[in-house]
Amino acid sequence: MNQIYSSIPTAQLIVELCVLNGIEHVVISPGSRNAPLTITLANHPKINAYSIVDERCAGFFALGMTQRFNAPVAVVCTSGSALLNYYPAVSEAFYSNLPLVAISADRPPHLIDVGDGQTIRQPDVFSNHILYSANLKSDFHNSEDQSILDFNTKETHKALQTAIWNQGPVHINAPFDEPLYNKTDQLDFIIPQLESLKPENAEINSSDFIKSWNTSSKKLVLVGVNLDEKIDKNVLKLLSDDPSIIVMTEITSNISDRNFFTNIDSILAPIESEENTEKLFEALQPDMLITFGGLIVSKKIKKFLRQFKPKKHFHIDPREANDTFFCLTQHFETSVNSFFEKANSSLNKIESSYFESWNAIRLKTLEYRKYYKDEIGFTDFAFYYSLFEHLPQDETVHFANSSSIRYANLFDSRREIKAFANRGTSGIDGSTSTAIGYAVASQEPTTLVTGDLSFFYDSNALWNNYIPKNFKIILLNNAGGGIFRILPGNKDENYFANYFETTHNLNAKQLCEMYQLQYTVAYDLEEVDKELPLFFKRNDSPQLIEIFTPRLENDKVLLGYFDYLRKHIDFQSVLNFKTTESASN
Q1: In CATH, what number is assigned to the domain containing residue 162?
Q2: Is residue 585 part of a domain?
Q3: What domain range is 49 assigned to?
Q4: 439 lies in the same domain as 531
Q5: Which Gene Ontology MF annotations are present (predicted)?
């Protein structure tokens, strides 16, 4: 059977160039102006096409796929406001370094701003948050003007190559004139030989790094979001076994070691209330800061390192370096494994009490976290403690913004899990869609942990035919935006509950019925501990467990946790340790 193409050459070349550049998955939203692309994509043997009605959900669905594949995934929409609904996902891809390819159909230029329906000014619409915009020309159906097809070919190829090699979003805007639905079984053009636009590898001069390493008795390694790089065991051992190094990670760092500090705020938050706050932070202040991975969740580590700056800050990443702490010394444009493979032979261990003294504090926070959990009632904090007790080995977990990911960073998983969160822009708008896109791409057991506002905001994410049977949602419903009770502000003002916390009486039962998700509910810790093991064992249908926690207690318990640690742990021992060590030397 012959392959079916749109009769419009530009639609043909966009699809063929996507295939040549390795794109295998395309998410299409229904429309008329994008019919030439839809006809060609839906009938292409090398394309897996998905239909998602809501363009905002479609963008995040594709984003989840890029997280799984670490390769470009395309979204295709019609003209007009449909395109603008991609913007949240595009901006998330921009700040998370994910190769999302947004392809929009457009009206021809002579129909823009003349009162024609479903038209806006689409070229360069994402200009502030895009790596490349390819604004194609209309080919007017089988045009003999080869220069138009040559231009469109080069622009499309450049956009796709940019997404691949620079790891970020690109936009291809293609104007199509009517008729839109004509088909053919023959390609109307031949794609010329196209060059790879892979950038040249940058030269690495690590002499300053090596000198700092070998002279710094306090080295802090801070790891942000790490989706795709598996760090070599030799590198982890190098960082873990050095007495002058503290490694701080977050759950989305996706690396683990028994000596790594995984609960950053449990150490920093109590110090903020200590009498000797400045002296304690000076004791923790690194001489040398080494960062890799993407963005950091913890506001407290940002505040600490901005105030107590290291002498040197080195960032290792093949693509970019954010000067988050306003003291960046050097960016090494290479992978972590490659960097340390070359530098390792020149790096020496030096005597230091940096890790030993602070690790004693870290171990105490783990011990007293359990004691605190036993003293409190059922709240968000107690739930997250139980969650990390019950998570299966190797589970993939997506954490929604904003409270979900912050709570998760207070706990250590005793099991190896893969953790994701949309921390590029940290919005709540696409957490569910992203998790579902990832689950569809991986077909692995995947769980979304989400709050109520994030879940209800993105409930259209459930409106598709692709949700795998082993996809699960844990919905923590505290009847509002609990994060705003944790943040500074007067919670007793009349407008607070309505305009900040946005309290509600919604539940997810009817949504689950409509979208055919198995529904379970829990109201206390006993029910949570009973239901979660059963919840994780069932894989015969997508399911959601809704857990109701007390709206007015959660913030008190969380903030009380940091005060509890301060009262029970001798943070001053770090200063005593340093004094004793100095005297003995």
Answers
A1: 3.40.50.970
A2: no
A3: 5-184
A4: yes
A5: 2-succinyl-5-enolpyruvyl-6-hydroxy-3-cyclohexene-1-carboxylic-acid synthase activity
Where is the domain boundary, 297, 332, 363?
A: 363
Rounded CA-CA distance 442/53 in Å is 22
339, 363, 387: which is the final residue of a domain? 363
- The answer to whether residues 23 and 159 touch, using CB atoms and an 8 Å cutoff, is no
**What separation in angstroms does the CA of 14 have from each of 3, 174, 177, 188?**
16, 9, 16, 13
* pLDDT band, very low/low/confident/very high, at 227 (cuts 50, 70, 90): confident
Report d(CA 88, CA 57) in Å as an integer. 10
Name the pLDDT band for 2 (thresholds 50, 70, 90).
confident
**Is there a domain that residue 392 lies in?**
yes
Q: How many domains does the chain have?
A: 3
Integer angstrom CA distances of residue 338 from 192, 322, 427, 498:
35, 20, 33, 52
Q: CA angle at residue 493 from 492 to 498, to 5 degrees?
A: 105
pLDDT at 96: 96
| Predicted pLDDT of residue 413 | 64
Q: Are residues 382 and 301 in the same domain?
A: no
Quick one: 445 and 333 in the same domain? no
What single string gives the DSSP state of each residue in 2-62?
Answer: PPPEES-HHHHHHHHHHHHTT--EEEE---STTHHHHHHHHT-TT-EEEE-SSHHHHHHHH
Q: Is the dihedral of CA 66, 102, 33, 156 positive or negative?
A: negative
Cβ–Cβ < 8 Å for 435, 455: no
Task: Note whether residue 189 is domain-resident.
Answer: no
Q: First-to-last CA distance in the chain?
A: 83
Report the share of the chain in percent with pLDDT over 70.
95
Q: Which of 459, 409, 397, 403 is nearest to 429 (CA)?
A: 459
Neighbours of 474 (CB within 10 A): 26
The bridge status of strand 330-332 relative to strand 312-316 is: parallel
Residues 388 and 525 grouped into a single domain: yes
Beta strands in 267-375 (DSSP E): 288-292, 312-316, 330-332
Contact call for residues 244 and 220 (beta carbons, < 8 A): no
Contacts with 384 (C-beta within 8 Å, 6 or more apart), sequence order: 407, 408, 410, 411
Can you give the C-alpha Rg of the chain in angstroms? 26
pLDDT at 1 over 80: no
* 414: alpha, beta or left? (left if phi > 0; alpha if psi -120 to 50): alpha
194: in domain: no
